[in-house]
């Protein structure tokens, strides 16, 4: 029995919640969808949200970072509303990260609610809006036209997810749906910054705060859950269940991130962020991470959460140090380190599992994880060696973006191919 079904059984509600839409669709004689709710006539790439959006997110990360290096070196200049570092931040947050979030949420919501997944033409329409946003952010100089074009995708995604959560009465995940609306607001604010209407920094901090909170919540669910599933088969001690420490970590992290968005220079904000990082680390320490060292596709989830705890503690230390620790270093620990690692962890696992393949990390997948980690560490090391800053910056960006390029190369064929039937599981091929 699935978790939604168990919840219905416990509550005694069996007729008002739409949690079996694919099954009811088939019983009604509809033949345009399969038992998972996917459009049979649609190509595989449009059967589930993770397929196109994980690929688009990976391609964006693989191409936008080298493009930013060309901009940084004065060899390229975007012609849209954002210049220099602002363009880099916008495309990494609202291009790459937004695509990965969309892929995950669009795939998770049908599991949460039991409703039909977005597939076929509606999914293609959402992809088109994402592309329009990327064109607007890079090439449309008119500020009003650019913001209208760019906001269409995050708003459409937020509305679609909110509708599904409300229709499925999935109150538990309402905060995640609300965060998509806040993420869209951050996009709007970033355009306001470019137009001189919003003070600098608020939009980037708000977007990263949403990303950090999503990792805190979702990473805090899937990391111990998948670890438990793996360890229970081996008869060894299991991750600690959700308890007071976990609740304390959530209750401290959310206001600490909010304070960072609004009052980033206050010592109290720095202390709150440092405390949040410490509590997240303690939370992680209870999930038996050392027991999965030999299972990279599980270990990477723990490393992503470790990056999250470290980055929040580093953000706090940067504020409390009075400038001794550069804020940009802490920001890249959160973005390149935590976001980069956690997104690849989710993208690889979900791409394998949802396409019927064995959830195991082969050599190519392990190389993806290594490249992301090494690239992030080199980016943090660059300011510590000012005489080698530019070469280290270029090397860090090249290696980090190569991780996503390798994902696109190895997992792209999987995302375009139909789901495997039982007994035909394979691994992604190394190039």
What is the radius of gyration computed over CA atoms, rounded to a whole number of angstroms? 21 Å
Q: Structural class, from secondary structure content?
A: mainly alpha
Global geometry: globular
In DSSP terms (H or I, runs of 4 or more residues), the helix count works out at 14
Catalogue the unreliable spans: 1-19, 423-431
Give the termini distance in whole angstroms.
40 Å
In which range does the helix fraction lie? Answer: 55-70%
Give the DSSP E fraction (strand runs of 2 or more residues): under 5%
Outline the biggest β-sheet: none
The count of DSSP E runs of length 2 or more, i.e. the number of strands, is 0
> Mean pLDDT, nearest integer?
89
Q: What is the succession of H and E elements? A: HHHHHHHHHHHHHH
Defining key terms:
431 residues, mainly alpha, 70% helix, 0% strand, disordered N terminus, disordered C terminus
Draw up the topology in text.
Layout: H1 3-11, H2 21-27, H3 50-72, H4 85-113, H5 121-139, H6 143-167, H7 174-194, H8 202-232, H9 244-262, H10 267-285, H11 296-320, H12 327-353, H13 363-381, H14 389-416
Helix pairs in contact: 3-4, 3-14, 4-5, 4-6, 4-8, 4-12, 5-6, 6-7, 7-8, 8-9, 8-11, 8-12, 9-10, 10-11, 11-12, 12-13, 12-14, 13-14
């Amino acid at each position: 029995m699935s978790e939604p079904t168990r919840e219905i059984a416990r509550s005694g509600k069996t007729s008002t919640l739409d949690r079996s839409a694919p099954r009811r669709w088939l019983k009604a004689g509809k033949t345009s969808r399969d038992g998972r709710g996917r459009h049979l006539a649609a190509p595989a790439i449009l059967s589930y949200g993770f397929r196109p959006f994980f690929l688009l997110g990976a391609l964006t990360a693989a191409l936008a970072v080298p493009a930013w290096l060309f901009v940084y070196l004065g060899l390229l200049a975007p012609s849209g509303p954002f210049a220099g570092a602002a363009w880099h931040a916008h495309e990494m947050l609202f291009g790459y990260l937004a695509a990965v979030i969309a892929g995950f949420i669009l795939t998770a919501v049908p599991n949460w609610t039991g409703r039909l997944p977005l597939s076929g033409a509606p999914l293609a329409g959402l992809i088109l809006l994402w592309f329009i946003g990327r064109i607007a952010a890079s090439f449309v100089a008119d500020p009003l036209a650019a913001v209208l074009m760019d906001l269409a995708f995050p708003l459409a995604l937020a509305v679609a997810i909110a509708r599904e959560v409300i229709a499925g009465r999935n109150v538990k995940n309402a905060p995640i749906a609300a965060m998509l609306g806040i993420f869209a607001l951050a996009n709007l604010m970033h355009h306001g910054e470019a137009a001189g209407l919003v003070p600098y920094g608020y939009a980037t901090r708000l977007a990263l705060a949403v990303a950090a909170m999503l990792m805190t919540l979702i990473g805090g669910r899937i990391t111990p859950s998948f670890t438990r599933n793996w360890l229970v088969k081996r008869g060894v001690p299991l991750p600690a269940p959700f308890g007071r420490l976990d609740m304390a970590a959530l209750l401290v992290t959310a206001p600490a991130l909010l304070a960072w968005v609004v009052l980033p220079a206050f010592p109290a904000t720095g202390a709150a962020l440092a405390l949040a990082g410490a509590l997240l680390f303690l939370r992680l320490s209870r999930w038996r991470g050392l027991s999965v060292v030999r299972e990279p596709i599980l270990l990477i989830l723990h490393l992503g959460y470790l990056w999250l705890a470290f980055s929040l503690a580093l953000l706090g230390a940067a504020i409390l140090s009075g400038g001794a620790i550069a804020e940009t270093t802490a920001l890249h620990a959160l973005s390149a380190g935590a976001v980069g690692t956690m997104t690849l962890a989710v993208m690889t696992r979900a791409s394998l599992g949802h396409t019927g393949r064995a959830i195991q990390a082969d050599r190519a997948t392990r190389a993806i994880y290594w490249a992301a980690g090494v690239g992030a560490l080199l980016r943090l090391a660059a300011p510590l060696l000012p005489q080698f800053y530019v070469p280290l910056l270029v090397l860090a960006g090249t290696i980090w973006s190569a991780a996503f390029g390798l994902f696109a190369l190895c997992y792209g064929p999987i995302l375009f191919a139909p789901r495997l039937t039982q007994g035909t599981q394979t691994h992604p091929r190394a190039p």
